[in-house]
Amino acid sequence: MAMETPDPRTDNGHYAEIRDTTPDEDVRTVVIHRIAWGAVFAGVAISMVAQLLLNLLGIGFGAGVVDPQSVDASSAGSFSIGAAIWWAVTGIIAAGAGGYAAGRLSGRPEPTTAAWHGLTSWAFTTLAIFYLLTTTLGAAVGGALSAVGSIAGPVAQSATQAAGQQSNPLRAIAPGLTSGADPFSSIEQQVRASSGDANAQREAAVVALRDLMLAPTAQQPEARERAVQALARVQNTPPEQVRGQVASYEQQYRQAVDQARQAATRAADATTRTLFWSMITAVIALLLGAGAAWWAGREAAVSPTITAAARRLRPTPRVAAP
């Protein structure tokens, strides 16, 4: 059976020039484009050290120019924005340094291959930094939350027992508020101040008012009547004259709860917006760092000395005039 021979013609109908090549030349071509892991990890090390030094410089500069006694909310926000910008700029510079080192140490004369070394070095550096940040910050945040939980646990248990096993709606709305921000504390102070010395009747009035504030809607009429009777006994006043005072306490408590809910909502919205823009900024900074690593690795491609000299000495072929 006859074997078909490939057509040496190209798409434009002309015959292509076929040169004699050896397998060794093909092997050298493959080797030139093979990744050099040593160069990649060297670029990772240089990039991380460069970012560490630049961040330390930024921290020192920021600590030197900021006066703790004159810092307010606006200046603190400006300082945070400046720190984010500095972190992004240092990341781009460090990515460029690591990419250049990876491309240069790879020894590859092909610019695209050297650029891929720089980009790979940037990818490993990014993964390493995020791993370190998540493990370190996770441990720190976990320890802080454990400390807060150990402190807030007994306080929440005591408040639940004093409220007759009723849940405090303010804690559900804004759990970060301290006990001093409890809207019932001002009502309790008013009752204690208007009832003279401490006695059992005064404590019973305080508990009855707290039960009223925390009671469900269906149980509020009964709880309101108990609070009126208890407060009337403490103040030695007819219940009809105390009902308006109890209604005022209820209104005061509801307003405080509404204010806490609005403050929590505003804080949640601000946190969401900050997180959104932080993620967008981080993605842009990482993409710019990737571009810097690619460009630096490409610029660091090795130029073979002998091959470059041979190209310069090679005579230019003359084209015969038609």
Features of this protein?
rod-shaped, 322 residues, 75% helix
Task: Outline the fold blueprint.
Blueprint: H1 23-32, H2 37-65, H3 73-105, H4 111-162, H5 169-173, H6 183-194, H7 200-214, H8 220-235, H9 239-299, H10 305-313
Helix pairs in contact: 2-3, 2-4, 3-4, 3-9, 4-9, 6-7, 7-8, 8-9
The average pLDDT score comes to 75
Share in helix? over 70%
Total strand count, please?
0
Helical segment count: 10
Gyration radius (Cα, Å) is 37 Å
Name the helix and strand elements from N-terminus to C-terminus, one letter apiece: HHHHHHHHHH
Structure description:
The chain is an all-alpha fold. Among the domains are: 97 residues, no CATH class; 110 residues. It is built from ten helices and no strands. α2 runs antiparallel to α3 and α7 packs antiparallel against α8. The two termini are 46 Å apart.
Short description:
The protein has 322 residues and is an all-alpha fold.
